[in-house]
Amino acid sequence: MLKLEWNLPNILTILRVIIVPFFIYLLFDKTFSGRLTALILFTIASITDLFDGYLARKWKQETEFGKFLDPLADKALVLGGFITFIFISDQIQIWMVLCIIGRDLLITMLRSIAIRQGRSIRTSMFGKLKTVFQMFSIGLIIISFLMISYKERNVINELYHQAYLNGIDPWFVAFDNAIAFFQGTYKSVPYALASFVPYYLMLLTTLLTIVSGLRYLITNYELLLPKNLISKKSNGS
Q: How many separate helices (H) and strands (E) can be counted in the chain?
C-alpha cells in the first residue's frame, strides 16, 4: 500500500489533482471572469508539474506515492482539458482526443507489462516534449476563448457545426478561416485567430501524441515478445 509522505513535491502534486475539477468546471463558465480563472488555475497546475519532480530529485524526496500520483495528475489535467474542449468548441474533434487517450492507455499497458516482467520502460525527452506542448496548446486555446465573447464563440461553433452537417471536413473550414485572416478580410483579429488557431493547435498536438506513442511502442517492443524470444535475443541466438 502506498504511503503518503508530506513533503513539498507531494503537496504540489496533490494540489494539481485538487485543481483539476475546479479547472474543468470553470471552463464551462460563460463569463470572462470564469474563463480567466480557469486559465489561472491551469497555469498554477502547470507550474506545479514543472517543479514537483525537479524538487523531489534535488532534495532527494522521491517517494513511491509521488511516482504513482504525478503521472496520474498530469493525465487528469491534460485529458480533463481536452475532453472538456469537445463540449465547448466544435473545432476540437472527438477523434483527436481519442488518439490522445489511446496513447496514454498504450503507455499504461506497457508500464504494467514492464512491472510484471520486473523491467523498466524506456522513455525519452520526446515524451516530455509532448506533454509540454499539450499544456501549451491547452493554455493557448483557453486564451483564444478569452479573446472573444461567448456569443462570438457560438458563431464559430455554428460555422464548424454547419460544415459538419454538410459533410465538409473541419480542416477546410479552418483553412478558409486562416486564408481569410492572412488576406485581412476579417475586421476583428481576435475573432479571426479564434476561428482557426484552436483547430490547428489541437491537430498538431494530436500528431505529436501519435508519434510519441509509436516511439514508445518501437523502443519498448521487446516487452510484447514472448519470454523465450527475449532470452534468445539476449544470448545472441
A: 10, 0
Expressed in percent and rounded to 5, the helix, strand and coil fractions of the chain are 80, 0, 20
Query: Which residue range is the domain that position 191 belongs to?
Result: 89-225
Q: What is the pLDDT of residue 17?
A: 92
Task: Identify whether residues 95 and 83 lie together within a single domain.
Answer: no
In a domain, 65, yes or no: yes
Number of compact structural domains in the chain: 2
pLDDT digits (tens, 9 = 90+) for 54-94: 777 777 777 777 777 888 888 899 999 999 999 999 999 99
So what's the pLDDT on residue 237? Answer: 47
CA-wise closest residue to 71 among 89, 52, 98: 52
CB 103 within 8 A of CB 75: no
Position 70 in a domain: yes
3-state DSSP assignment of residue 20: helix
SS3 83: helix
Give the count of alpha carbons within 13 A of 160, CB side only: 22
What distance lies between CA 202 and its chain's CA centroid?
9
